[in-house]
Specification:
The structure holds 2 protein chains of 2 kinds. Chain A is built from no helices and 12 strands. Chain A is an all-beta fold. In chain B, β4 and β5 form a beta hairpin. Classes of the chains: A mainly beta, B mainly beta.
């Protein structure tokens, strides 16, 4: 069955430090990939997406992610974290040839930022 | 910038009551979705809707659930007889017409509390 794994439930980083959030998916077909961010009590905001082409994609708020097909991964990175980045981050995957494009989400990684 | 809207933002209901959650997708979008997120858990796909019919539904979407697009703008999720375990945040999403591919735009969610 298709699945998305975010192995880190909670990560704490210091403000100004670099960040990497991991995401792995399980499926043989070509995926399209997303990272969403959710602040407490809020909806899901798209950070970035990968459909095809360059495997390093840039998103909003200084985030980037790299698709590595050989590792079935789509890790999210930011070189310098800001206190406002504290939120929950969800990786989501859809598949070409899937029915109507519904997304499969990981369980999320909660990011805390220390001053 | 066009956005998906959802009403109400918070709904409290008694167990066994019917609830209708409302969504207004982005106007030129063709695919519509409902997802739910139980507190502290991942976002889960419920149902997708295209061309005025359900195109796919998950195991969660049992006979207690139904969706409708009554007037060409609203997209509703009805739960006929709510259970305690239906308490969750419900997200509506929509996307443009490219089949099987494309970013989904999420609404801010409706928090449903079943007492």
């Amino acid at each position: 069955a298709q699945s998305v794994t975010q192995p880190d439930i909670h990560i704490t980083v210091s403000e100004g430090a670099s960040l990497e959030l991991r995401c792995n998916y399980s499926y043989g077909a070509t995926p399209y990939l997303f990272w969403y961010v959710q602040s407490p009590g809020q909806g899901l905001q798209l950070l970035l997406k990968y459909f095809s082409g360059d495997t390093l994609v840039q998103g909003i708020k200084g985030f980037e992610a790299e698709f590595k097909r050989s590792q079935s991964s789509f890790n999210l990175r930011k070189p310098s974290v800001h206190w406002s980045d504290a939120a929950e981050y969800f990786c989501a995957v859809g598949f070409y040839g899937g029915s109507q494009g519904n997304l499969i989400f990981g369980k999320g990684t909660k990011l805390s930022v220390k001053p | 910038e066009p956005e998906v809207t959802q009403t109400p933002s918070h709904q409290v209901t008694q167990m066994g009551q019917e609830v209708i959650l409302r969504c207004v997708p982005i106007s030129n979008h063709l695919y519509f979705y409902w997802y739910r997120q139980i507190l502290g858990q991942k976002v889960e796909f419920l149902v997708s809707f295209y061309n005025n019919e359900i195109s796919e539904k998950s195991e969660i979407f049992d006979d207690q659930f139904s969706v409708e697009r009554p007037d060409g703008s609203n997209f509703t999720l009805k739960i006929r007889s709510t259970k305690l375990e239906d308490s969750a945040m419900y997200f509506c999403a929509s996307r443009p017409g490219l089949a099987g591919v494309g970013e989904q735009f999420f609404g801010p969610g409706t928090r449903l509390t079943v007492l």
